[in-house]
Amino acid sequence: MDAAELVDIIQSGETSRVQFKQAMDDDKIAAEMIAMSNAKGGIIIVGVQDKTGKILGLSYEQLQSYNSRLAAIANDKVKPPIFVLSEVATAATEDGAKKVLVLSVAEGINKPYKDNNGTIWLKQGADKRKLTDNAEIMRLFQQSANLLADEMEVFDTSVDDIDERLFGAYFKKEFKSTYQERGLTYEEALKAKRILRNGRATLAGLLFFGVDPQAIKPAFTVKVVSFFGNEISANQYRCKPEDLKGTIPELFKQGMTFLKSSLRHTQQGQGFNSIGILEISQIALEEVLQNALVHRDYFKNSPIRILIFDNRVEIISPGKLPNGLTVEEVKYGNPVIRNNQLVAFATHTLPFSGLGSGLKRALALQPNIELINEVEEERFIVKIPRLPEERAAIEC
């Protein structure tokens, strides 16, 4: 890191990825390392006053001592251990050149990280906080692929919460024969497909084959609203049906029905007597809706939202992109699978185009799609512009 870059970083102040420490306090440094490892990584600059950003610098003896203690902190005070890079950098100040120690902490791949007391630290802006909420802790496990929401057992469920008709039809479609013809009992077939575990329905099984999924998981609905204008307003909407409920295939079908009935069909070069073409590519809408249903974060207890405005459609999924995946990587078909079982079931029940290719296909058909990964708010938004036209009185 050169002097100009260092001074610029320090002058910008502390952030969720930049922290200042005047001296090396082993426990405090360990807590910062843990918080950064559990978030997006960052740097700790030792030799800078954290309240003022004043560069105090470190002596040769301090630099040697701190560097020798660094490995012990990262190995003995962080669980599981992490690897930290250190660099001595020089900054020009009014009092002359000052040397500081820059510690680079990468985002962890084995979250959650904790201290010797079992405390999990997480960044929150420029500060850090203790993590105590079980749902947040589970999401950290999920990010390191140590815990998959869709494969977890759902409390207070049983084989009775699975629709045998739905599962039987699915099994026959996948295997070209019934589970009875394969010599399996109903429960054996459910266990083989990871729909039943320890006598309970898994989340994937409930969401795809449940008798009434929202009776057990009421937040996993799809909220749909068509607004007048281009802003959310509590009392100015064209259409606001009841929340969509049912299995994922049923939610997909209902969601597409809402979209097709709420959007305009236009003449786009076809004959006068031809049926109008949907103003937004139907296939693109199918892809982004499937993506929301199958790839959302099911550790977040909140619904998917489909919002239609005069100038755009928004589909909002709970959860940011997993494992550091970026919007650019998504655009070019680099998948990180959050819900393995849901993806497997979707392959045989939805018009699912395959791993990583759905958004690529949607963008090819509808290039003006905007993808927004809101990391702090933990949600993924797809915005699709509508064709410009005067407001139409479209009713549900």
What can you tell me about this protein's structure?
Helix content is 33%, strand content 20%. With 396 residues, it is α+β, with helices and mostly antiparallel strands. It has a six-stranded mixed beta sheet, covered by helices on one side. A four-stranded mixed beta sheet has the order 1-2-4-3. It is globular, with a radius of gyration of 26 Å.
In short:
With 396 residues, the chain is of the alpha+beta class. It has helices spanning 3-11, 26-38, 60-76, 134-143, 164-175, 186-192, 203-209, 213-216, 248-262, 282-295, 327-331, 340-349, 358-365, and strands at residues 18-21, 42-46, 84-93, 96-105, 121-124, 127-130, 196-197, 200-201, 222-227, 237-239, 265-266, 277-278, 304-308, 312-318, 370-374, 379-385. The protein folds into 3 domains: 3-143, 2-Layer Sandwich (Methyltransferase, Cobalt-precorrin-4 Transmethylase, Domain 2), CATH 3.30.950; 149-216, no CATH class; 222-385, 2-Layer Sandwich (Heat Shock Protein 90), CATH 3.30.565.60.
Q: What is the overall silhouette?
A: globular
> In the CATH hierarchy, what is the architecture of the largest domain at level 2?
2-Layer Sandwich
For this structure, the CATH topology of the largest domain is Heat Shock Protein 90
Order of SSEs: HEHEHEEEEHHHEEHHEEHEEHEEHHHEE
Tally of individual domains? 3
Q: C-alpha Rg, in Å?
A: 26 Å
Largest β sheet strand count, sense and barrel closure: 6 strands, mixed
Question: What is the helix content?
Answer: 25-40%
Alpha carbon gap, first and last residue: 59 Å
Question: Structural class of the helix and strand makeup?
Answer: alpha+beta
Number of strands: 16
Spans of at least 5 consecutive residues whose pLDDT stays below 50 are none
What spatial order of strands do you see in the largest sheet? 10-9-13-14-16-15
Strand content: 15-25%
| CATH class designation of the largest domain | Alpha Beta
- Total of helices: 13
On the 0 to 100 scale, the average pLDDT is 88
